[in-house]
């Protein structure tokens, strides 16, 4: 590196660190790389995306920083990790099935050996000389016992491998849980919600929170099946995502419950948004392909809370969730509080 390059890098770094401090960005290696590239203006698309995010949200949330890092900074190998995990999971499932089949075939082979021994004993009784018969029997018994020992060891190895695969699959599932995106609906998940609301709280940014829950979803699943239930979750998630304009972000909070963080928005704005969304969900229609029936009875209940100065993020969530439960008790398909 020549002196000019070193001086330029130093100057860029001097601008990067204060900017990260200003926006209260955690000082992780990925964030350093992201904000260093932003300051250096080496990636116009990155700068455009970050400027747009900061203008809309007043900040760059941890979830967004991570997304931008993967989109603009990370190597292709890093970007492909998620796909690799999925492929590896599928591969392990196939290997596991193959192992199960092999175990079955091995047991069948041993059964056939036992039948063969019975036939040899019959042949001895039906005409071979004692010496010839016993020589044949001794040789085959010795060989078959070797095979039995070999297959026994093979079965043990397969059982061990299956246990290792089960352990690895569990580890991969745990790793996949760390992703920011909900696999079914495509919107942000609970992990992203927790990170982002903590970030807003730590930066003392005003916000309101909408919590919503699909009405009678368990009964819906029991009546129409989980596949149709998944269609409903996807449809509601699309409505949430489409409805979120500047300084709003939607998340799947868990099961059939969702959340929307509205940065720099007051209670009145949050309630108006929730009411618009409630009416939009009422219009969702899904087709049951099993019988051609169209389902038009999907509704959701909402709870709203605006953060006060003294509240923690957990207290805001609890308050919004309480209003949500009250909305369900009062007949569902409504937004609370009323004002």
UniProtKB/TrEMBL annotation:
Pfam families in UniProt: GGDEF
Class of this enzyme: transferase
Any one Gene Ontology molecular-function term assigned to this protein's record: diguanylate cyclase activity
Domain GGDEF, residue spans: 205-339
Any GO BP annotation: negative regulation of bacterial-type flagellum-dependent cell motility
Cofactor: Mg(2+)
GO terms for cellular component: plasma membrane
Enzyme nomenclature, EC number: 2.7.7.65
Cross-referenced InterPro entries: Diguanylate_Cyclase, GGDEF_dom, Nucleotide_cyclase, Rev_trsase/Diguanyl_cyclase
PANTHER family documented for this protein: DIGUANYLATE CYCLASE VDCA (PTHR45138:SF2), REGULATORY COMPONENTS OF SENSORY TRANSDUCTION SYSTEM (PTHR45138)
Protein name (Swiss-Prot/TrEMBL): diguanylate cyclase
């Amino acid at each position: 590196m020549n002196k000019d390059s070193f001086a330029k890098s130093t100057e860029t770094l001097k601008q990067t660190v204060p900017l990260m401090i200003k926006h209260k960005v955690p000082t992780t290696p990925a964030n350093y790389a992201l904000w260093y590239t932003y300051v250096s203006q080496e990636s116009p698309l990155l700068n455009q995306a970050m400027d747009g995010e900061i203008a809309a949200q007043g900040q760059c949330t941890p979830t967004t920083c991570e997304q931008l890092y993967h989109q603009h900074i990370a190597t292709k190998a890093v970007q492909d990790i998620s796909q690799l995990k999925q492929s590896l999971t599928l591969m392990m499932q196939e290997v596991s099935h193959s192992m199960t089949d092999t175990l079955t075939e091995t047991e069948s082979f041993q059964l056939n050996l036992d039948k063969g021994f019975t036939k040899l004993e019959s042949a001895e009784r039906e005409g071979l000389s004692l010496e010839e018969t016993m020589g044949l029997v001794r040789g085959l018994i010795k060989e078959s016992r070797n095979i039995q020992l070999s297959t026994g060891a093979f079965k043990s190895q397969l059982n061990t491998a299956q246990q290792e695969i089960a352990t690895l699959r569990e580890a991969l599932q745990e790793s996949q849980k760390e992703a920011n995106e909900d696999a079914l609906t495509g919107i942000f998940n609970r992990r992203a919600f927790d990170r982002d609301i903590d970030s807003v709280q730590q930066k003392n940014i005003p916000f309101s929170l909408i919590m919503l829950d699909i009405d009678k979803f368990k009964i819906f699943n029991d009546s129409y099946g989980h596949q149709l239930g998944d269609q409903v979750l996807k449809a509601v998630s699309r409505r949430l995502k489409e409805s979120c304009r500047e300084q709003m972000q939607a998340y799947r909070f868990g099961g059939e419950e969702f959340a929307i963080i509205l940065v720099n928005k007051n209670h009145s704005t949050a309630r108006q948004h929730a009411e618009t969304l409630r009416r939009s969900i009422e219009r969702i229609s899904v087709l049951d392909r099993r019988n051609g029936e169209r389902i038009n009875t999907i509704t959701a209940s909402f709870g709203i809370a605006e953060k006060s100065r003294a509240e923690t993020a957990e207290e805001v969530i609890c308050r919004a969730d309480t209003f949500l439960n009250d909305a369900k008790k009062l007949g569902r398909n409504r937004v609370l509080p009323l004002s």
